[in-house]
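hiii, so i know i said id send this last week but things got crazy w the move. better late than never?? heres the sequnce for the chain we talked about at the cafe, plus the structure i predicted for it. fair warning i was half asleep when i ran it
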Amino acid sequence: MKQHPRFRGPSLLLLAIVHVLLFAANLAVTAALRHGAPFINPFAPAEAVRAFFMQNPSATRISSFFLFGSAVPFGLFAVTTVSWLRFLKVRAAGVNITFFGGLTATFALILSGLSGWIVSLPDIAASAPLAKAIYFFSFLSGGVAYAVGFGLLAAGVSVTSYFTRLLPRWLVALGMIVAVAGEFSSLSLIAYQANFLIPITRYLGFIWMLLVAVNLTRNRRPEQVQQ
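okay and structure toks below
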């Protein structure tokens, strides 16, 4: 009896769920431990940024820990998705674009988490200009850099899946919306108003990740893929 090859690797769905939960923990900790203090925008005056981080070191440090931690399952999700595409005999530039976008978003989260942790240190937070500069770096890394990388990942998977029919058309369309929002979020570097595209990329991207994890791995065999 002929044995069908089986994919050997971590569960895409489990990785997506863990990533979402860790990111949610980052938000929950920030809200719970800052004791009602309003969220500070990096565009606020340097003295206001300094005061926020001086008053909320624990919230900043723990939330940064969870943000940093969320990068690990995200990175594993990205490389496992690439492995699935290769397992399904996909040979297209979209596979490499997926890999590049996934690593870009992963390292952006890592840098955002680490720099956020650094600004929680009293000696760093005590300097208003330094605190604001590091906070801006964390904000940009976890915001626009992450969104652009995520957009590339979504584009790579979606375009490839469109031509190989690996995913439903509606899910491909959702992925392209995430991709477009992610890439156009780069406009926030010259126009602050474009920042609204970052949460669209992130939260719509969470839904897309979960759906891709379910659909990409559902009863697929290499010989079923149409090149």
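btw DSSP finds eight helices and no strands in the chain. thought thatd interest u
miss u guys!!
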